[in-house]
Amino acid sequence: xxxxxxxxxxxxxxxxxxxxxxxxxxxxxxxxxxxxxxxxxxxxxxxxxxxxxxxxxxxxxxxxxxxxxxxxxxxxxxxxxxxxxxxxxxxxxxxxxxxxxxxxxxxxxxxxxxxxxxxxxxxxxxxxxxxxxxxxxxxxxxxxxxxxxxxxxxxxxxxxxxxxxxxxxxxxxxxxxxxxxxxxxxxxxxxxxxxxxxxxxxxxxxxxxxxxxxxxxxxxxxxxxxxxxxxxxxxxxxxxxxxxxxxxxxxxxxxxxxxxxxxxxxxxxxxxxxxxxxxxxxxxxxxxxxxxxxxxxxxxxxxxxxxxxxxxxxxxxxxxxxxxxxxxxxxxxxxxxxxxxxxxxxxxxxxxxxxxxxxxxxxxxxxxxxxxxxxxxxxxxxxxxxxxxxxxxxxxxxxxxxxxxxxxxxxxxxxxxxxxxxxxxxxxxxxxxxxxxxxxxxxxxxxxxxxxxxxxxxxxxxxxxxxxxxxxxxxxxxxxxxxxxxxxxxxxxxxxxxxxxxxxxxxxxxxxxxxxxxxxxxxxxxxxxxxxxxxxxxxxxxxxxxxxxxxxxxxxxxxxxxxxxxxxxxxxxxxxxxxxxxxxxxxxxxxxxxxxxxxxxxxxxxxxxxxxxxxxxxxxxxxxxxxxxxxxxxxxxxxxxxxxxxxxxxxxxxxxxxxxxxxxxxxxxxxxxxxxxxxxxxxxxxxxxxxxxxxxxxxxxxxxxxxxxxxxxxxxxxxxxxxxxxxxxxxxxxxxxxxxxxxxxxx
Length: 747
Description:
Layout: H1 2-22, E1 26-34, E2 40-45, E3 53-57, E4 62-69, E5 76-82, H2 89-103, E6 112-116, E7 122-123, H3 141-160, E8 163-173, E9 179-180, H4 183-186, H5 191-194, E10 204-212, E11 218-224, H6 242-259, H7 274-282, E12 290-291, H8 296-299, E13 311-315, E14 322-323, E15 328-331, E16 352-355, H9 362-383, E17 386-387, E18 392-400, E19 405-408, E20 412-415, H10 423-427, H11 447-457, H12 461-467, E21 489-497, E22 500-504, E23 508-509, H13 511-526, E24 538-542, E25 551-552, H14 555-560, H15 563-566, H16 574-591, E26 629-631, E27 644-651, E28 665-671, E29 674-680, E30 686-691, E31 701-708, E32 716-726, E33 735-740, E34 744-746
Parallel strand pairs: 5-6, 11-13, 22-24, 23-25
Antiparallel strand pairs: 1-4, 1-8, 2-3, 2-7, 3-30, 4-5, 8-10, 8-17, 9-14, 10-11, 12-33, 15-16, 18-21, 19-20, 21-22, 26-27, 27-31, 28-29, 28-32, 30-31, 32-33, 32-34
Helix pairs in contact: 2-3, 6-9, 13-16
Keywords: Endoplasmic reticulum, Glycoprotein, Golgi apparatus, Hydrolase, Lipid metabolism, Metal-binding, Secreted, Signal, Sphingolipid metabolism, Zinc
GO molecular function: metal ion binding; N-acylsphingosine amidohydrolase activity
Protein name: Neutral ceramidase
């Protein structure tokens, strides 16, 4: 009798859980964590520009995660969006190791996806292949650890926050946040293929809205939309989440301000006369440098990460040929549009540069493109009514992309190739021009560069033939000294959340390549006989996910060999290989098959080389303390909206402590007799700029805090505060300091 009752009870529980999922009741949790890496002297990942090294922070980088589970012990997925250039195979491996030590097999390679926004303004040195580590002088442990820890803790926070909830989905078009930067290559696609679409970029944004079932409160939103993280140029040295990071900051602050008074936009205005404010401010002088605790900068944060904050993420999609520089590309010398086919000016690729909507102000361009994504997300968020119901599922496989047999037209077999880069790669793009002497579309290599190439590694005849019509400039797939230059084994993954299918791709698919992949997967799911998939099934691409393998162009686009095609590593049939293998995964998903062979996951951590030296110790000039003012705020009456206020402090290299979940810079507002943080280095309006021996002939470090008074700033008395840390020698203990400027007024 007892066994029978237990069996009945178990069946009731199972039926209840099935009913809950069918009704859209999931367990949902969201989390976020600071992942800002070293803000001094580390090469930025994206433009491959040796001179672009970090020199401060515009606003901080974050890892943002959501977890959705059918039940406490049921199927679940975790998706993490990084303010980073891309995901890294090595980062993914180490994150999974940490999650296993915390949760056992609850979170694993199958059900965890880690995706990058593709900002080009974050510290590099966290990928494990030589091609992506040259400009960063190899592996940078501090960059790597910042990412791994942030991802781990964002997932842990989301896990701790799991509670019954509902998820709503909404879609809408955003038409002014991206243009096709290789329109001539897009025209190589068949006319009948292009005729299916109104534009040569994808304009659709897909948004998920997460709602706490018990309180009815919204707790987050994740969206996918394709546009490059290249609003900030190759000359920028301030860490920045670029336009998607800006959109996330705007959305999170919008939600917070709409639900309670935010310390980022203090609403209380002082009633005293402006003359009295000026008089009082004039009597508040700089504090001088003072010792402080390790956690002091965390206490000064405007947005304290206690796990209760709204999480808003703007994820990347098939971004390969989509630029945020929407005014188009023009010649620096003449101001005329660049050559259409080669994106050059008089044969010079370096003169052809794209213009953002705020041209020539790249920060304004970042803000505008960020605001456009933010505003569309708000529109979708506030009007989302369609609730997601249905199963959670996932599939993942590792594949050796250098040697895949691809079946075309039923019986014609072609193969992928070892990785290689063509001359169009060296030309760069209109977002970031490359090396002089190359143009996009080049199909030949001159004798000089052939000799340079052959001195590094002459490609095999198999490689030359396999990659045609690409001319092999860098034979990265056949280069293994001091270790592998390019990935061979890649993961591809499908996550299912009810009607939403997320394709985790380890690279940058062009617009048309992404469209073909989405269509192929959807058609496969629908035609597999599983009634859960139909015309309402929605498929999104999560670009730059789990690892990075550069670009994927269509077979037709590959013929022109512009930048995206020249960077399509595995030859002309790369996209066909992806489509073939994703269709296999989709079939397994539709059948519920969990016996898909995984294959090996490469871990090269033991052979990484690090050539970037750690700072050796800092000291201020004689008679000076760290945190002392070198150049105080210059006051000539009130500061108004749009004015820039700045002060410079004697400081130490910010690499001694990243001040994670803290801040290097604060604009404090006087309320009564207390100084309250109003803006910090996670605000778009506040800048932390570092200058030191690495950048100039000066022997001492300087930190400049600059605040552009924003529209929402309240009238009152303010001052600028700096936090930092230092060692006197390389191995001495870390000490912490702070200092504040003289006060000033804002009217």
